[in-house]
Amino acid sequence: MSRIFISTGEVSGDLQGALLVSALRRQAQAQGRQIEIVAIGGDRMAAAGATLLGNTSSIGSVGLFESLPFVLPTLKLQRRVKQYLRSHPPDLTVLIDYMGPNLEIGAHLRKVHPQHPMVYYIAPQHWVWERIGNPQKVLAVCDRLLAIFPREADYWQKKGAAVTWVGHPLLDKFLIPPNPLTARARLGLDPAAQVITLLPASRRQEIQHLLPVMFAAAQEVQRRLPQVQFLVPVSLPSYRDAIAQAIADYGLNAQLIDASPQGDSSHDLGQAAIAAADLALSKSGTVNLEIALMNVPQVVMYRLNPVTAWIAEHIVRFSADFISPVNLVEFKPVVPEFLQYHGTPTAVADAVVTLLTDAAARQKMLAGYASMRQALGAAPVCDRAAQEILSLLE
Fold this sequence. Notes:
Radius of gyration: 21 Å
Strand content: 15-25%
Shape: globular
Number of helices: 18
Number of domains: 2
Helix content: 40-55%
CATH architecture of the largest domain: 3-Layer(aba) Sandwich
Structural class: alpha/beta
Largest sheet: 7 strands, parallel
Oligomer: single chain
CATH superfamily of the largest domain: Glycogen Phosphorylase B
């Protein structure tokens, strides 16, 4: 029996981790190999067959001040996980995204179990913004790096990593885009209704800084298009009350959708809420790729704490051509992005209304999606990644 330890965090990491856990179990069975998977992650990973040492779905943030509330819970969890790993050493470790905590756990494992192999899957995005982070810390904790973007593979290869490009795991989940009419029927929506899905938050900070601007933009869209209906998937149950109150405050004709994980992705109401939409107005993140692979037009926005944003711009000198993963795949402006103060309610509403009313603009975006899909690789991505990982157990 080989023990595999997987470490990830936040909602997106839980999704990627769940896909990988399922693939590892499939490939191990095909090879006649017995494995045990222990992890820090979320409910989707547990449903896929991992034994959770701690749930990190709601422990995540972007920014200096935003991360402060999560420092103590993260340290407590790390201390508990380190104790477990000392007494139950894994035969192999897989780190997924979740840069700060994973580099800490990786460094600990490298010290106490220097010979056991470590894989970084979905590595920190130094290839997008080199001024942020230290790539040498990543190289110090991984024996193999599995890249999901072609440019990512090129970047880490130049840095000296043993890297394999496996493709993007979401390709496995969306081999065929879901049927929008089926999704509408499931949610009880009129097939002819004009539907916009709002995706404001997978982190607590986004409810404070991003949601108000997004809902103000939605309010403006509703003023211009009075018949529009909004769907708002709730990624974590703890966010439900705050989002419901915001819907009432902004007077939106909106329906809350429970998007919390239920194990089988076919029962994922959050996915149905996106598939049913004429357009999604979304925060920046992995969900942008899900939207694109479902062929739903989208507008992307993001907001940080204003002080964090000022430090990033004026002290760190942070800059990036694009922030949405959809645009990062080929470094092309497939979807409109509105970062920080550029994302005014009026500017965002203008972009939304244009995509809803201009057939040529929608068609151009869908063509960009098709090109992006080709550039992401070919399925089955997760099984390919699982084979690479299991080969290190030889």
